[in-house]
Design brief:
Order of helices and strands: HHHEEHHHHHHHHHHHHHHHHHH
Strand content: under 5%
Shape: globular
Distance between the termini: 29 Å
Largest sheet: 2 strands, antiparallel
Helix content: over 70%
């Protein structure tokens, strides 16, 4: 049986470009830039990383493909390409954000790991085969563990990485055991073949156990309750660029593959989490996890005084909102999910960029460090207001339409009986709670009096420009959400039964 390796190389070209970029950045830093000032090394490495991301992005635009190779190990279609392009954009902005920081002397290694984590995420969203999904998850996870521990001058960084690694190792073991049960039941590792083999009038008890184990693994990746315990420490202790990438790129890839596994691999075992109409399956399990994430994430965020820790609990709550799109279980739900996680990721990267600049000036990212920021940096403050209000779901910003779409998808999942209305009402109520702690940040920026003799932030022009571009993107996607939504919906045919 012949195989077209040229086509495989062509389809893998974006990932290949990223790997080559990682090797080039590492080689240049080790060979020629070791004696240069740290800021120069950071800037050059970020520029090479950005160039690699742009090259991979352009390849996907110039050479559009639709193919499935090696029993679904590599699947390329318009929706997958869109998600991969989103990951490249997030990597690019994370690299530019890194210019503002001085947490490490190992510049080449940091950017190489950032690029390899992106490669793992790109392969992850491009696969419909369990083994490839697991290998891609581990490549991503191992890179993120090290990125979390990269600040050797901060004990919290090592502590956060250790917790992240231990929880991640346990989650990976449980996930792999769940996948072994799936293979034992179906005799297949391709998601569509699994769904065909497991179709039956009632779910097998072993299948329910496999679903629970799979959800545990992915619940850890998206930091949903009760698998969230690593997130607050990791967000606070990790270097700010690493935390930004974990909160953005990792969330986009993990939610997308979670939706793929549930909607394709466990098709027929959905069950129901509708009010007074419970049926065993993965939907009611995700409904419980979503409700817990909404409540705990938002209520715990009220007590936070560190902005990165606040964003961590906010991320837990946003995992609950995003799960509504998975629960909707259909093209509408998947489209709403992708729109939500992409716009959320852009927003949270921008918020972390502002935090990084405040940390560079103040040394920490506490709420008190944001006092008077509007007097020192009016443009950065305006951008932070855009990010914060988008996270809160205030129109006409992208976050409002993200929440609106997942709420509509959840209601339409059982439109006849409005069975998921209880979950939407809970989500809206928790959104009102979230507005309080988001406004606490803006209150420090705009209302509290500034310190005497305060000076402007020492951020670079590149970093500040990137923040402004992100704020404009969040505003534009809020004013013109159809631009992104139409691209998402046009690629959803691959998920139809």
């Amino acid at each position: 049986m012949s195989f077209d390796y040229l086509q495989l190389l062509k389809l893998c070209a974006p990932e290949t470009i990223m790997v080559v970029t990682a090797l080039v950045v590492l080689f240049l830093d080790l060979a020629w830039l070791r004696t240069e000032p740290n800021r120069t090394r950071m800037t050059l490495a970020a520029m090479f990383t950005a160039a690699g991301c742009i090259a991979a992005f352009m390849w996907m635009l110039v050479v559009p493909e639709k193919a499935s190779l090696l029993n679904g190990m590599l699947v390329v279609d318009p929706l997958t390409q869109l998600v991969k392009q989103s990951l490249l954009v997030l990597t690019l902005f994370t690299a530019l954000l890194s210019i503002e920081t001085t947490f490490t002397d190992h510049v080449g290694e940091f950017f190489a790991l950032l690029l390899l984590a992106t490669v793992g995420m790109m392969f992850l969203v491009s696969s419909e085969e369990l083994l490839m999904i697991f290998v891609s998850l581990e490549l991503t996870s191992l890179s993120l563990y090290i990125l979390t521990a990269f600040n050797k001058h901060n004990a919290k960084s090592a502590e956060a990485a250790l917790k992240y690694f231990l929880f991640g190792g346990m989650a990976a073991a449980v996930t792999l055991f769940g996948m072994s049960l799936i293979y034992g039941l179906s005799g297949a590792t391709n998601l569509r073949a699994i769904a065909t083999a497991l179709t039956g009038p009632t779910p097998d008890p072993l299948l329910l156990a496999a679903i629970v184990m799979t959800v545990i693994g992915f619940g850890f990746k998206v930091a949903a309750v009760p698998f969230h315990l690593w997130a607050p420490d990791a967000y606070e202790g990790a270097p700010t660029p690493s935390a930004a990438f974990i909160a953005s790129g990792s969330k986009v890839a993990s939610f997308f593959i979670l939706a793929k596994v549930m909607m394709l691999g466990f098709a027929g075992a959905e069950g129901s989490g509708a009010w007074k109409a419970y049926v065993p399956g993965w939907v009611p399990l995700l409904a419980v996890i979503a409700s817990l994430s909404l409540v705990l994430g938002n209520l715990a965020a009220l007590a936070q005084t560190n902005v990165k820790r606040l964003l961590a609990y906010s991320a837990i709550a946003h995992a609950g909102y995003a799960l509504l799109g998975v629960i909707a279980n259909g093209p509408l739900g998947l489209g709403a999910l992708v729109f939500y996680v992409v716009t959320y990721a852009l927003t949270v990267v921008g918020a972390f960029a502002v935090v990084a600049m405040v940390e560079t000036e103040k040394g920490q990212g506490n709420l008190s460090d944001f006092v008077g920021l509007s007097r020192r940096e009016p443009v950065l403050s305006l951008c932070m207001m855009v990010f914060i209000l988008s996270l809160a779901g205030i129109p006409p910003l992208a976050g409002f339409f993200g929440k609106f779409y997942v709420f509509v998808a959840a209601v339409k999942a059982d439109v006849k009986n409005l069975g998921y209305l209880w979950l939407v009402i809970l989500a809206i109520a928790m959104s009102a709670v979230s507005l309080y702690y988001y406004l606490q940040v803006l209150k420090r920026i705009y209302v509290f009096p500034s310190e005497e003799g305060a000076v402007s932030q020492k951020g670079s022009l590149i970093g500040k420009t990137a923040v402004v571009v992100l704020a404009l993107a969040v505003l534009a996607l809020g004013c013109f959400p159809g631009w992104l939504l139409e691209r998402i919906l046009s690629g959803l045919a691959v998920f139809k039964p």
